[in-house]
Amino acid sequence: VFNRMDGGKDFICAKVVYDSEKYQDKAEVEKLVKEKIEEVNTKLISYKQIRDFELTDVEMDKTTTGKIKRH
């Protein structure tokens, strides 16, 4: 989860890493992720809702202890 600016306003985005060996069709994964985000957003206050997401099959950089690196 990260912050993005648009028109002077901040909004919440998510970076989703999927297994390309398990899911070959990126459009299918995008549809599944979008549905799940919509489901989660119904339970969140508007300023905490995920407004956008990035979909990738490339692993994020990790520290030696296996945690995702912050940039």
Report on this model:
The protein is an alpha+beta fold. It is 23% helix and 30% strand. It has one helix at residues 26-41; strands at residues 2-6, 9-17, 50-56. A 3-stranded mixed sheet has the order 1-2-3. The protein is globular, with a radius of gyration of 14 Å. The model has no long low-confidence stretch (mean pLDDT 91).
Largest beta-sheet characterization = 3 strands, mixed
According to DSSP, the number of beta strands is 3
The neighbouring-strand order within the major sheet is: 1-2-3
Report the end-to-end length measured between terminal Cα atoms: 12 Å
> Overall pLDDT, averaged?
91
Helical proportion, percent range: 10-25%
**Helix/strand order, N-terminal first:** EEHE
Which oligomerization state do the chains in this entry correspond to?
single chain
Radius of gyration: 14 Å
Shape descriptor reads globular
Uncertain parts: none
Helix count? 1
Sheet/helix structural class:
alpha+beta
Q: Report the sheet-strand fraction.
A: 25-35%
Outline of this structure?
This protein is α+β, with helices and mostly antiparallel strands and 71 residues long. The chain has one helix at 26-41, and strands at residues 2-6, 9-17, 50-56.
Question: What characteristics describe this protein?
Answer:
71 residues, alpha+beta, three-stranded mixed beta sheet
Give the topology, please.
Elements: E1 2-6, E2 9-17, H1 26-41, E3 50-56
Parallel strand pairs: 2-3
Antiparallel strand pairs: 1-2
